[in-house]
Design brief:
The chain is 65% helix and 0% strand. It is elongated, with a radius of gyration of 21 Å. The protein has seven helices and no strands. By secondary structure, it is mostly helical.
């Protein structure tokens, strides 16, 4: 008589249209342009909206809105980075690829199914197999510290080691995309 449930994970249906850093960048550029327009006298209702504001106050408010738009876009790009690793992980597991990296990833899949940790599991394995450099893995971990700070409402002072903005996170996503799509990642 079996008293425990099987730990066999159900397959995750992978998206055929995952969020890409380029799609987020396009959206971000539109949002920035709209914010800039909103804070110029070419914007309908500008005179009424800002009748009692100084130029410095208008610029400060605009800069605050631009910062928030950048943080939201950075959050979406970081989500796309995590999705890229998850898709690659699950694709390798489902296809039962025979390379050493895929075999190692299947070990995680047997124990954790689709619920692996990017920072604790996937980055370490990709780094061990020479796909990620120590620098890139560290940059991803640090950027995800920024994501966690944003996601948890910014209630604490983060120890990130550096400041982040949308451009930094976008550049990181492009580097990750290049590494995951390179022939070396297929080994």
């Amino acid at each position: 008589m079996r008293l425990w449930k099987s730990r066999v994970a159900k397959k995750v249906a992978l998206s055929t249209t995952p969020l890409t850093p380029d799609a987020v960048a396009t959206h971000h550029a539109i949002m920035e342009a709209a914010i800039h327009l909103y804070y110029t006298d070419a914007s309908p209702g500008f005179e009424v909206r800002f009748a009692f504001h100084s130029t410095q106050e208008i610029q400060a408010e605009r800069d605050e809105r631009l910062y928030e738009a950048g943080a939201a876009s950075a959050m979406m790009v970081l989500a796309s980075i995590e999705a890229a690793f998850q898709i690659e992980y699950l694709s390798r597991c489902y296809a039962r690829q025979k390379d050493d990296l895929s075999r190692e990833l299947r070990k995680f899949y047997r124990n954790k199914g689709p619920r692996v940790s990017l920072a604790d599991d996937l980055l370490r394995v990709w780094k061990q197999h020479g796909v990620l450099t120590e620098r890139l893995a560290g940059n991803i971990r640090s950027a995800f510290g920024y994501r966690n700070w944003l996601a948890h409402g910014r209630y604490y002072n983060p120890k990130l080691g550096r400041e982040y903005d949308f451009a930094d996170v976008y550049d990181l996503a492009c580097e990750v995309e290049e590494v995951l799509s390179s022939p070396n990642s297929m080994n």
